[in-house]
UniProtKB/TrEMBL annotation:
Its EC number is 2.7.13.3. The lineage of its organism: Bacteria, Bacillati, Actinomycetota, Actinomycetes, Pseudonocardiales. Keywords: ATP-binding, Kinase, Nucleotide-binding, Phosphoprotein, Transferase, Two-component regulatory system. Signal peptide: none annotated. Residues 142-224 form the Histidine kinase/HSP90-like ATPase domain. It catalyses: ATP + protein L-histidine = ADP + protein N-phospho-L-histidine. One of its GO terms (cellular component) is membrane. The keyword Cell inner membrane does not apply. Pfam families: HATPase_c, HisKA_3. It comes from the Bacteria. Residues 42-103 form the Signal transduction histidine kinase subgroup 3 dimerisation and phosphoacceptor domain. It comes from Lentzea atacamensis. GO terms for molecular function: ATP binding; phosphorelay sensor kinase activity; protein dimerization activity. This is histidine kinase.
């Protein structure tokens, strides 16, 4: 009887403060677990990038230097090839480190980091940035990684000719929106996009992917702002 009374009271009066607190603790526990999984997935991806990119180039560089030492008559040509390969290794390492954490995000802010991202992208990016002041890391860090992952995916898979990247304010939300004119069909359940969804959920934000076959693809993250 007491249980029935409690259910009726909850139905008509709404959840008690204790029930609200319990629900919130449960949500935070799930959110924390999702963040840990997103971090682990990012580590696995970095490992793949290092293995498939940087490590393979380092092997090629070592082989070129070895050939140069064994063939003095071709040393000049082989050393020039090695120099070019070393430059590509440096570019790969720089790209990996930017995906881990962009240099300058703390000191220069989100706007500068996104401008650098747009400059490095192989697809033309039109950046519209309307925030007039710096925001805390809980906003700028997930905003950057949403933009970075989306732009990287477009460059690799979408066969797009342009990317529109905007960061705007809508009420109490900072909205990051990425649209491309590629082939569409992006899978929200894929490791990259699902990791972004978990990262955004960890700050009580909302994340959506609209990517019909044939395009366009629109990725949106709404991040709550305290002011």
């Amino acid at each position: 009887m007491e249980s029935l009374d409690r259910r009726l009271a909850s139905h008509f009066l709404g959840p008690t403060a204790q029930e609200v607190l319990r629900r919130r603790v449960s949500e935070l526990t799930v959110s924390r677990a999702e963040v840990v999984e997103a971090i682990n997935e990012e580590r696995r991806r970095i490992e793949r990038d290092l293995h498939d990119g940087v490590q393979q180039r380092m092997v090629a560089l070592g082989m070129l230097l070895g050939r140069a030492s064994r063939r003095p008559d071709q040393a000049a040509e082989l050393l020039e090839q090695a120099r070019e390969e070393a430059g590509r290794v440096l570019l790969d390492l720089r790209e990996v480190t930017w995906r881990v954490y962009p240099v300058g995000l703390d000191s220069d802010g989100l706007h500068a980091a996104l401008e650098s991202l747009a400059e490095r992208c192989g697809v033309p990016v039109r950046l519209r940035y309307e925030l007039t002041e710096r925001h805390p890391g809980t906003i700028e860090i997930p905003a950057y990684f949403v933009a970075s992952e989306a732009v990287t995916n477009v460059s690799k898979h979408a066969r797009a000719t342009r990317i529109d990247l905007s960061v705007t304010r809508a009420g109490t939300m900072v909205v990051v929106r990425i649209e491309d004119d590629g082939v569409g069909g992006a899978d929200p359940a894929g490791s990259g996009l699902s990791g972004l969804a978990r990262r955004v959920a960890a700050v009580d934000g909302a994340f959506t992917v609209d990517s019909p076959r044939g395009g366009p693809t629109v990725i949106t993250a709404e991040l709550p702002c305290a002011w």
